[in-house]
Write a structure and sequence with these properties.
With 232 residues, the protein is mainly alpha-helical. The chain has helices at 16-33, 46-55, 61-74, 78-82, 86-93, 99-117, 125-128, 136-146, 156-165, 178-186, 194-207. α2 crosses α3 (61-74), α2 packs antiparallel against α6 and α9 packs across α11 (194-207).
Length: 232
């Protein structure tokens, strides 16, 4: 028995084929809404993006962008940051929160880059996640935005938006598995679009599909989103 989505919120039995078609139609609307996709973290190199992404955990990109100019001015290379005084790094990044842990991570990852990778950011997920403070999401950010390689970062916005859209089976769970979300969503899109897809979902989450009070009446996906009627 096939399933399809009628009006928003009226999800009956939706076939796999219909779901994938809906995903592509909804993504086309996101492309129209956000034609230019990319990270909002300011950076001029793969290393700067890596550090900035580690700093962005549990804070906003905008706030990270307020501290990285001084950080990279004082410590312009992995070698310089690897040899930095942690107290000075903490002073610079204090406004973003969790500054002690983050200072340790960015100093240690820079040290590891120098010792193991000759100061060059590796271009594989397997190598990236061996660095201190670097998880799968951060690795995917660097792969997609620094190297143009397939990477689909699943942050809190992507997790929330794709769950509300029911783009994967994890939407039913209180604590969805982000790796499963990544695999299920990526299976429906070409690899060269993964990074842009993530960015556009993040933009939608930041601007419209808020955690507490989603602005469904302004969302271009409201006519097909299974969750829209809950907030309209």
């Amino acid at each position: 028995m096939s399933r399809r989505v009628g009006t928003a919120g009226n999800l009956t039995s939706e076939s796999r084929e219909h779901l994938v078609n809906r995903m592509h139609e909804e993504y086309a609307q996101l492309v129209a809404l956000y034609p230019h996709a990319g990270t909002t973290l300011d950076h001029f190199s793969a290393w700067q993006l890596l550090v900035a992404t580690v700093l962005s955990a549990q804070t906003t990109d905008r706030r990270v962008n307020t501290v990285t100019p001084e950080l990279f001015s004082q410590f312009p290379t992995p070698q310089a940051l690897a040899n930095a005084d942690i107290g000075e790094v903490e002073r610079i990044i204090r406004p973003i929160g969790f500054f002690h842990m983050k200072a340790m991570h960015i100093i240690e990852l820079s040290d590891q880059l120098v010792k193991r990778f000759h100061g060059v950011v590796p271009q594989t997920r397997e190598e990236l996640v061996t660095l201190p403070g670097v998880g799968r999401k951060t690795a995917n950010v660097v792969l997609g935005d620094a190297f143009g390689k397939p990477g689909f970062p699943v942050d809190t916005h992507v997790k929330r938006v794709t769950s509300r859209l029911r783009w994967h089976d994890q939407w039913k769970k209180t604590n969805p598995d982000v790796v499963k979300i990544e695999k299920e969503v990526c299976a429906c899109f070409p690899p060269d679009e993964w990074a842009n897809l993530s960015h556009r979902l993040i933009y939608l989450g930041r601007n419209i599909c808020h955690a507490r009070s989603p602005r469904c009446s302004l969302c271009p996906l409201r006519h097909t989103c299974p969750s829209a009627s809950l907030s309209l």
